[in-house]
Amino acid sequence: MAARGRWILRVVALSVILIASAVIWYTNAFLTESFTESTRGRAEVRLALYTGNILTELQRTSVVPLLLARDPSLSGSLMAGDFSMTSQKLISAQAEIGAASIQLLDIDGRTVAATDRNKIGINLGQKPQFVDALRAKDTIFTVAARESGGYDFTYSRAVQVDGKTVGVILVSAELSKFERGWGGFADAVAVTDSSGIVILATEPRWRGKPLEEALALRPAQTAIGRAVRATFDWANSPPDAYVKGEAVMRNEARVPFRGWRIVSFTTFDSIRERVNAVLSLEIMGFALLLAAAFWFLSRQARNETAVFRRESAELRQLNARLQREIAEREKVQKDLAVAEQTLAQSSKLAALGEMSAAVSHELNQPLAAMKTYLAGARLLLQRRRAEEALSSFQRIDDLIERMGAITRQLKSYARKGGEAFEPIDVRASVSSALSMMEPTLRSGKVRITHTLPRGPVMVMADRIRLEQVLINLLRNAVDATKDVAEPQVEILLTAGETATLSVRDNGHGITELDNLFEPFYTTKKPGDGVGLGLAISSGIVNDLGGRLTARNAPGGGAVFEVQLPILQDRTRAAE
Questions:
Q1: Any idea where the Histidine kinase domain is (predicted)?
Q2: What is the largest CA-CA distance in the chain?
Q3: Cβ contacts of residue 305 below 8 Å, gap of 6+?
Q4: Which of 157, 485, 502, 509 could be cross-linked to 65 through a Cys-Cys bond (beta carbons 3.0 to 4.6 Å apart)?
Q5: Bridge pairing between strands 422-425 and 458-461
């Protein structure tokens, strides 16, 4: 027995380790996916915000060249060649608009006025923003690379006087400020033009390169970095990309301007921290459980050692007296019998607990109906309507008889039997179940529609158990329609090769069909149900030789079908 106990404890410890590994693996996969989706959602929201900021800045800057080109003071200075106050006017306009820079060029492309006075005198006659502005009548947008790095985003427009072009006004959009702002909310952000070249980026090395080529730029990894990356690849789903050798999540959105796209890269650090926090708690819990198991093992070993010592001392004394040895053996046999009785009693208590849960669930509906009838009888007696009150008491008596029948039938959950089977008209069972549910249906204002054949639909079944199945299905349908404005329950009985009874509601439907008939599985709030109704109903239908199925209705709601063998004339004669 001692060796068997040690083996049992070892199996339990191994089982705990295997269960812990499975739970930790599943928790890591589930939480990683969940947190990744939430992080991806936040990143997509930020991309929408960034896109709006870029468009707002571009649209605000695009109207500036048109306004300045129509300014009489600027066109007058170009005609007169007097630019003493022009730069100051451009500086004032820049302060009001918030543009990066403003330049005024004469017809030869020379800068005659600018917000940055260091640019005055520079000739831009060969630049595309000047050449394209002279050729077009509208405002021209140009993206040009700077020698110092980065890009200038310029709106240019020709300044005309009496239909004659006298100069060009250049207004640069301040898009570089977004790069600094993005760095505080995301790990990396890049904006590409229609050809895929990076024109804005939080990483300066990316500008001017195709995005995939820019992502390939990363420092050589150290041994620790390679180990971390290998661990990440093993414990997580494959990342979208790597930035600086670190796995990142990639999110991309379209900027509705000249085919631009914006891409953000977010690290998994925050996700791993949240997942690791939960995994740490789980590992700690399993570690404590294993520690308790090992402590129990060591305690049992000490107890066994003490027992062996006592037995050794007793054996030295029993060598001289054979009768004491026989007495000790009898004592061991008695202890074994007590242990067997204790084990049997534990099994009985476990069965009693399961039976109590079933009884509590099955008697809940009759008790609720009795409470309603008692309240109605009390009100009738107060109004001196004794005969109607007697009718309520008769219903209560019927319910008490039904509760007694239910308690007797609950024995079938532990021992199957068919002695109560008899030919039953399913239509009568439907009517009885509706009568049983009448108080609940009336209080819930549920519209009941039932379609029954004119002729009898006979099956071989237990009347009480079949009615209990129908009551469970009706109760679940009523509970499913609590949050519906116009609750409806449809009952359809058809007879063919089998008797098929369908109960359909217009509620929220079924979310987990696989676990629907598992014991103690329920979607109701605590106190509203224990999750035994459908499990018991499925067992009853199986005992009757039928099948209970469930599915979601195409128009919404759920449909439960009970299929039972039809009792044919030949079958009835055989019975």
A1: 358-568
A2: 138
A3: none
A4: 157
A5: antiparallel
pTM listed for this prediction: 0.43
- Give just the sign of the alpha carbon dihedral 143, 146, 150, 153: negative
- Paired with 447 in beta bridges are 488
**How far is Cα 253 from Cα 263, in angstroms, rounded to an integer?**
6
- Contacts by 197-203 with C-beta closer than 8 Å and gap 24+? 199/143, 199/151, 199/260, 200/151, 200/175, 200/176, 203/243
Asked if residues 516 and 572 have their Cβ atoms less than 8 Å apart, the reply is no
Alpha helices by DSSP H, 319-416:
322-362, 364-382, 386-409
Contact assessment for residue 214 and residue 205, using Cβ atoms and an 8 Å cutoff: yes
Provide the phi-psi class of 258: left if phi over 0, else alpha when psi is between -120 and 50, else beta.
Answer: left
Comparing C-alpha atoms, which of 464, 455, 465 is closest to residue 425? 455
- Rounded Cα distance between 114 and 541, Å, is 89
Burial class for 421, CB neighbours closer than 10 Å (0-12, 13-18, 19+):
middle
Distance CA 559, CA 207 (A): 60
Model pLDDT for residues 355-396, shown as the tens digit of each residue: 455 456 667 777 888 888 888 888 888 888 888 888 888 888
- Please give the structure tokens belonging to residue 131: 């050449």
What is the rounded distance in angstroms from the CA atom of residue 532 to the CA atom of residue 524? 12
Let me know how long the chain is: 575
Do 75 and 81 touch, CB atoms closer than 8 A? no
Distance CA 306, CA 302 (A): 6
255: left (phi over 0), alpha (psi -120 to 50) or beta: beta
List % helix, strand, coil for the chain (3-state, nearest 5): 55, 20, 25
For residue 69, give the nearest of 30, 104, 111 by alpha carbon.
104
Reading the block at residue 60, the tokens are 């605000």
Alpha-carbon gap, residue 499 to 76, rounded angstroms: 97
Rounded to an integer, what distance in angstroms lies between the CA atom of residue 34 and that of residue 274? 11
CB 290 within 8 A of CB 254: no
Indicate the pairing of strand 198-201 with strand 241-243.
unpaired
Ramachandran category for residue 163: left, alpha or beta (phi over 0 → left; psi -120 to 50 → alpha) = left
Q: Give the side-chain half-sphere CA count within 13 A for 213.
A: 10
The alpha-carbon radius of gyration of the chain (Å, integer) is: 42
| Range with lowest mean pLDDT among 53-57, 92-96, 296-300 | 296-300
Pair type for strands 547-552 and 558-565 = antiparallel
